[in-house]
Structures are given as C-alpha cells and as structure tokens.
Amino acid sequence: MKDVYVExxxxxxxxxxxxxxxxxxxxxxLEVYSDEKAVPFFNSDNCNGDNFxxxxxxxxxxxxxxxxxxxxxxxxxxxxxxxxxSGRAVGTIEMFCRMADDFFNxxxxxxxxxxxxxxxxxxxxxxxxPLLEQAPELFGCESVSTKAVKEAAERxxxxxxxxxxxxxxxxxxxxxxxxxxYYMLRCE
Length: 188
Known about the structure:
Layout: E1 11-12, E2 16-20, H1 26-33, H2 57-72, E3 77-83, E4 88-98, E5 107-114, H3 121-139, E6 143-147, H4 153-161, E7 165-167, E8 171-172, E9 178-179, E10 182-186
Parallel strand pairs: 5-6
Antiparallel strand pairs: 1-2, 2-3, 3-4, 4-5, 6-10, 7-10, 8-9
Helix pairs in contact: 1-2, 3-4
C-alpha cells in the first residue's frame, strides 16, 4: 500500500485533474464555496456545524489551512479538482479511511464539493473514476462511501452508474449523531 500522507498523488483523466489543495487554490475555490446552489450538496456531517459556505477569501484561506493541518496529522486528504478545459478549480474531494464501530468501518469516506454547474452525472463520474481506481491502495479501505442527499439527483445517478449502492445504514458521528443518505461501493 502506498502512503498517501507521505506522497499525495496527482490523479486525473483527459477532463479533470485532482491535485492536493494548496493555498494558491483559495481564490478559485472561494467561487465553489460561495455558490449558494452548490452548498446543499456538500457533506458537512460530523464537521462541528460547518456548512462550508464561505463569503470571504479569509474564510477560504482559514479552511485551506485546516485542510493542510489535517493532511499533516494524517486525518484526511483534500484534493482540488481542476477542469482541464479552463484550468480552473471547480471543487474539492476529501477522502480518508474511516475506522469506527459501525457499518462504515474501514470505508474510504469521500466528500465531493462541486460548483453547481458541475453537478451533472457524466461530470461526476469523470471526476470520481481516477480516485476510485486507486482508493483501496491509497487508503487501505474495503469500501468507499459518500453522501448524496435526495435533492442531488444527478449525483445519485452518477454514483449508481459507478456501482455505488444506496444504504439505509446510518453513519455514527463522533458525538453520536446518526447521518443518512449514504451510498457505498465495495472495493474488489
């Protein structure tokens, strides 16, 4: 198994590039995190009340500092998603292997935050495929799980196309809160 916390790979395909988020991405990512249409699709479960709606560059920079500290402490990896056609950041993906005493033990928990105009089935599939191919090796996970609320019709279709199955199981938060709307893909 590769250690993603020692060397974080650049992933991608002809349409999208995923690179570990750095401070230079802040201005473009602010366009994602200030997109009111996008925020309802973000997964803020177990994030201490943060809904990831930011209005200022300072807020975005503070969050990127937190993501960097989390990477250094081996908590999770956050990649910026770049549209190769424009060269601009259009979202982020967070991932880590969750160790817990619930159904979601040893799952690669994936959080996908996208600008609203990228919330389309084919785009989501294209963005996720390169990471899903390497997730078991990078994170040592037995499955990959991600949240898709009922209103996220395009995201749900993309997940189903990629082989994810909706689960009625609840993810148990650190404070005991139960979170739903999860999809799971078993790794082979």
